[in-house]
Amino acid sequence: MADESNEKDTSPGFMNPVAGFGVTFKAMFKKRLTEQYPEQQKTTAPRFHGRHQLNRHPDGLEKCVGCELCAWACPADAIYVEGADNTEEERYSPGERYGRVYQINYARCILCGLCIEACPTRALTMTNEFELADSSRANLIYTKEQLLAGLEDTMVDSPHAIYPGMDEQDYYRGLVTEAAPGTERQVAVSKGEKPAEGAGAAEAEEVEA
Ligand code: SF4
Ligand code: SF4
């Protein structure tokens, strides 16, 4: 009985290794795709989904209202939010509520962007920063302090009073473009901060005089 496999193989056997190297030779003359990371950083696409950022209004108050919609939208359960009420003595956002605790767990996050779509105030957006790797799980939980946007020249750090004569709607209408002259950061008593020593005594002296 004839061997069918031998009948179909018409090429000389010694050519097989050379044919195999054909793929290698073709690849040798192609443009190299090796990226010299991290020595050479590649520019990401403008709408790249990187690390999140909690944004501020132009006067430095926070845009987050602690509504938790981002946390509910997250398919990976990576966001934890606790809202709280603002007071006139300690105001973090122009309206009634603010995000007292805000955490994103980057061990869970898949950078899908559903949370930023859900945010009603554009408080939450994503940056182009992608270097999030870490050897500790605890370090991958980013806190509100880490996620909060930095201060620009027109801003005063929260907590501080709302712009005089403006309300929450005016902030979203873009009528507040900078911190009001003389705006000072309030004492964050809820975070354990205490009024500066001597402040109370100085006020008492002024009253007596
Ligand atoms: S980007 Fe996606 S996975 Fe990451 S926190 Fe937002 S919704 Fe969750
Ligand atoms: S980031 Fe946006 S969606 Fe999330 S709690 Fe704050 S305001 Fe709500």
UniProtKB/TrEMBL annotation:
Binding-site residues for [4Fe-4S] cluster 1, renumbered to this chain: C64, C67, C70, C119
Annotated positions binding [4Fe-4S] cluster 2: C74, C109, C112, C115
Required cofactor(s): [4Fe-4S] cluster
Superkingdom of the organism of origin: Bacteria
Disordered: annotated segments: 183-209
Gene Ontology biological process terms from the UniProt entry: aerobic respiration
Cofactor note: Binds 2 [4Fe-4S] clusters per subunit.
Cross-referenced SUPFAM superfamilies: 4Fe-4S ferredoxins
First-level EC class: translocase
Cellular compartments per GO CC: plasma membrane
PROSITE patterns found in the cross-reference section: 4FE4S_FER_1, 4FE4S_FER_2
Enzyme Commission code(s) on record: 7.1.1.-
UniProt domain 4Fe-4S ferredoxin-type: residue ranges: 54-84, 100-129
Keyword annotations: 4Fe-4S, Cell membrane, Iron, Iron-sulfur, Membrane, Metal-binding, NAD, Oxidoreductase, Quinone, Repeat, Translocase, Ubiquinone
Membrane topology of the entry: Peripheral membrane protein
Location, primary (coarse class): membrane
Assembly: NDH-1 is composed of 14 different subunits. Subunits NuoA, H, J, K, L, M, N constitute the membrane sector of the complex.
Name recorded for this polypeptide: NADH-quinone oxidoreductase subunit I
Native organism: Streptomyces tabacisoli
Species lineage: Bacteria, Bacillati, Actinomycetota, Actinomycetes, Kitasatosporales
Name of the gene encoding the protein in the UniProt record: nuoI
